[in-house]
Amino acid sequence: MTAHHRQPALFATDPELAALVSAEETLQAETLRLIPSENYVSAAVLEASGTVLQNKYSEGYPGRRYYEGQQNIDRVEALAIERAKGLFGVDHANVQPYSGSPANLAVYLAFAKPGDTVMGMALPMGGHLTHGWGVSATGSWFRGVQYGVRPDTGLIDYDAVRALALAERPKIIFCGGTALPRTIDFEAFASIAEEAGSVLVADVAHIAGLIAGGAHPSPAGHVDVISTTTHKTLRGPRGAMLMCKEEHAKAIDKAVFPGLQGGPHNQTTAGIAVALHEAAQPSFVSYAHAVVANAKALAAALLERGFDLVSGGTDNHLILIDLTGKDVPGKVAAKALDRAGIVVNYNTVPFDPRKPFDPSGIRIGTPSLTSRGLTAAHMPVVADWISRAVDAAAKADEPALAAIRSEVADLMAAFPAPGLPLA
């Protein structure tokens, strides 16, 4: 099927934009996508995200809207809410946040006032901008204090977290991050937050799919609020959810609307509902466990090839590689890998002596390749490609990168991606 036949109205109306979409389909089909926050959504999620639900304004919540004509929209949102509650075992779910950062902003609005102390993992240690880091609004409007990882192990030092929490008594503590390759101990954080009198928020944006599939412990029952995006490992559209105990439901809902935003994106809510339905199937459990198995196999294969991994490996979908020993900066390696058809992002590593825009590491993950059907048996091949590409980057050997790209495309052709139309 040609791109022209897949999207006839788009090609007829705006061939320039249609050609770019078609080019992106080809790029996603032919490359090995290792960015841990990316994935392939199903054809069903894509279809739901492009429906006439786009045409409707729905400020408010089901049964309490400021616009009429909500007979169907209310049922769509209620479906997404009930599926979220069932899948994650929570009292309350709000599926309206536009994305992860706005969802986290809603948490601040619900529980803190400007100038209050908030606590999260430092960005260079693997935390997220919205956990009180200085360049973020959350670090400007609130007094952010940060915890990190131990230099010797690359793991969170829970004694240090406790000491900081008791010294600072933050209104909110965030656990979770964007470059954490190890299991988060939600019970330990809950104990610390209780002792410090803090609201505990688990930002599980990266690992929500692993939690839903039983491949990572759940924060439900331990934390006050769970914040997550709906894409990444959860394989939904680009949106977010806030889930919480019943006692916090009103505060969270009021913070999202009218606190931060107006009408929800109903077409995204529909896509979230489909993704949550898919995540409740037995096949999703297999996928979630395969993501972790692939990551562990890839980490082992990289270690065999002399790579230095932060914390020495992984418990989840994510691997953080420190390239200092390879004498190749992260940015140089990431761009070389991209030319080799392997898509990663350069990333700061804990205690990185280099600057954030030119750091020492790269961050990789296994959600996308797992969604395509690659298994642990393929991971030595992937590790070999990464090793060859990093060596080629050090020598500026473009023919070597081109050779890898051809090999990558051959393997990808044998494992079609979900949601991508077949040529």
Automatic annotation (TrEMBL):
InterPro entries reported for this sequence: PyrdxlP-dep_Trfase, PyrdxlP-dep_Trfase_major, PyrdxlP-dep_Trfase_small, Ser_HO-MeTrfase, Ser_HO-MeTrfase-like, Ser_HO-MeTrfase_PLP_BS, SHMT-like_dom
EC number: 2.1.2.1
Site (Plays an important role in substrate specificity): 231
Pfam families: SHMT
Keywords, ordered alphabetically: Amino-acid biosynthesis, Cytoplasm, One-carbon metabolism, Pyridoxal phosphate, Transferase
Metabolic or biological pathway: One-carbon metabolism; tetrahydrofolate interconversion; Amino-acid biosynthesis; glycine biosynthesis; glycine from L-serine: step 1/1
Protein name: Serine hydroxymethyltransferase
Organism: Streptomyces katrae
Gene expressing this chain: glyA
